[in-house]
Amino acid sequence: MTSRKTLLAGVTAFSAAALTAGMCINAASASPLAFSQMQAQAVTQANQVADSLGAANGGIYLDRGKAVVNVTDAAAQQKAEAAGFATKTVKYSFAALTNAKNTMDSVKNVPQTAWGIDTKTNQVVVKIYDAASQATKDKVTAAAAKLGDAARVEQRTGKLSTYIADGDSITNDQVICSLGFNVTKGGEPMMLTAGHCTNEGGTWSGGDVSGAEIVESDCPGADSGLLTRPNGTGEGAINTGQAITSAAEPTVGEQMEKQGQTTGGGSGEITSVDESVNFDVGVLNHEFGTTAKTDHGDSGGPAFDGEKGLGTLSGGDTQTSYFYPLTLELESYGLELA
Known about the structure:
Elements: H1 16-26, H2 32-51, E1 57-63, E2 66-71, H3 74-82, E3 86-89, H4 94-105, E4 113-118, E5 123-129, H5 134-145, E6 151-156, E7 161-162, E8 170-171, E9 176-177, E10 181-185, E11 188-193, H6 195-198, E12 204-206, E13 209-212, E14 214-218, E15 224-228, E16 246-247, E17 255-260, E18 264-279, E19 282-290, E20 302-305, E21 308-316, E22 321-325, H7 326-333, E23 336-337
Parallel strand pairs: 2-3, 5-6, 16-21
Antiparallel strand pairs: 1-2, 4-5, 4-18, 7-21, 8-9, 10-11, 10-23, 11-15, 12-13, 14-15, 17-18, 17-20, 18-19, 19-22, 20-21, 21-22
C-alpha cells in the first residue's frame, strides 16, 4: 500500500472575494464533497486574514459554509472586509478567549463539567451537568463568574459518559469500540481508535483483522489508542467509501460527518474547539464539541469533513458528542494516514 504523507488540508488559492461570492451561489446545491471543499477553502483563506490582524483577531467561524472573521476594532474590520470576508465586531480577541479558557483549566477535579471556545458567540462556553456534585457545580460556577461575560454557563441535563459498550466494530472480547482511521507508522499498517478503549487492554479484532496488539494508549489527558494491524485489509477510507486523504483542524460552524458501529453514519456541526471535558475517567484536553448524535460502541469512530479527517470519538451526552483531534494523534504518535 502506498502511504500518503500527513498534512493539514491544503487548498487551491482563490481570492477571498471570489471565494465568498462562490459560497453564496453554490453552497445550497453543492454535493457533500464540494461543500466540504468550499468550507476548507473558506477556513484557510479566513485564517490567513485573521492571523494578519494581530491583537485585533477575534477568531473565525463558519456560517452555512461561509467564513466570518471576528474583529475587535474598525481598522481590522476594514482590512478583513477589503479581503472579501464578512466580519463581526466582538469584545474579546481570540487570544483573550484562549487566556480565559486556560484560566478555567486551572480548576481541577470537577467531573461532569466541560469548557471550550465558541468563536460564534465570542465566549468560553462552560457546561455543568446534573450529574456533577453540588461542590463541583459551585466551584465551576464561581470560576466562570470571575471571567465576566467572556464566559457563559450552560446547565446540562444527564451525564457525560465515555462510549465503551454495546456496538460492533473492534473488540477485546470485553468491550466494543469503533475503528477511527487506518494509519501507518514507519510503513507498518496500524489502527487508530480512542485511548479509553485501548486502556482496557487485551488483543483486539474486527472485520478481517485479528490479534491486534496495543502499541499506544493515552487517556486521560489525550484520548488516543493505537493498535497493530497484523492482518486484514483496508485503505484510508470510511466504510462508506469516502476516502480520507488529509487531517485538518476543526472550525466552529463547520459541517461534519461521523461514523460509528452503533449509530452508523450521520452529520452535525462543530460547536466548540479546544474544549476541556471532565469525564469521570479524568479530564480530556483539546476536544471539539459537535451536534452529531453518537452512542455507546461508537467510541473511537471517526469525525470527518469530506476527504479531511477531523478526530476520533471520546463520548458525550444527548446533545453534544466530543472528538479528540486527528492532527494531534498523528503528530503525537508519528503517524501517516494509510
